[in-house]
Amino acid sequence: MALPHLTSAIPFLTEAGLETTAYHTYKIDLPCSSGTTLLTSESGRELVRSLYKSYANIAASSGTGILLATRTWRASSAWAKPLNYSEDELRDLNYAAVHFLKQVRNEVNKTNPAVRIVLDGVVGPLRDAYEDYSSDEISVDSAKEAYRGQIRTLVEEGVEIISLMTVTNLHEAIAVVELSKEMQIPVAVSFSLESDGKLLSGLSLENAIQTVDKATDGYTTYFGINCVHPARILQPLENMDLDVRQRIGLIRGNASLKSHEELDNSDTLDRGHIPTFVSALKQVLLLLPGIRVVGGCCGTDEEHLTALAQQCLS
Ligand SMILES: [Zn+2]
């Protein structure tokens, strides 16, 4: 059966930047910026639960559904050592992340049975999203080995779609699509873009989408855009062929107009200007006939999400 956001007349919402909110607003240190460690303490779980519920309530008030993400970004085996876990511990955390999200979905649906929540199994990149590494450095096969265990765990525990977030390396993207195809689950591939609207390597979004589609017989359910202010990608989208543009089903914009380099060198969070964010996003959505999911990335919070749900999803 098709997932509800694939057949809905209006796009679904997804999260805001939960990890940047945890770090900047709640002052919780996140090793490797991964939200996975939040699941290891009662206070961390409580925060994630309350943010999940806030996001779901925003979707419900706008009469749409929501994709809620497992806290498993950067929780593939490649991150076990940097996160200080054994591979077994990290696998258990992936199980726990899905289990926890299912619990929250049940709690939300008990009080509000109408809100449709899709369990989004998030995976994402094997290295820093702001680090450029050529496809020569990682083969499709080695990327598959790095992701296989995590994706199998997420699928076994019941996520409804796999979303590869903030990816910049095409071999990684192809690997995740191939694994999803093997495990017969829908998959989204969302690229992290720079302030020129291109991937870190200088590759255009159009080219990236075409390359992944060609290598995988178009298995990807939809592609996505991450981690860039919507105003920065208007022009590249305007210049893109419609047949490629309509493959884009997801956008999670950054609040800030600053470059990743400027943001990396800053300790304060730039929440940007919400009316500018929303009006640029509105224009972007007019260019995306295949849009299915809209949310926020770094620097966005419930206020951004509320504004975009009210103004962009009706
Ligand atoms: Zn981001």
From TrEMBL:
This is Hcy-binding domain-containing protein. Gene3D superfamilies: Homocysteine-binding-like domain. Residues 1-312 form the Hcy-binding domain. GO terms for biological process: methylation. It comes from Talaromyces rugulosus. Zn(2+) binds at C227, C297, C298. Keywords: Metal-binding, Methyltransferase, Transferase, Zinc. Its cofactor is Zn(2+). InterPro entries: HCY_dom, HCY_dom_sf. One of its GO terms (molecular function) is methyltransferase activity. SUPFAM superfamilies: Homocysteine S-methyltransferase. PANTHER family: SLR1189 PROTEIN (PTHR11103).
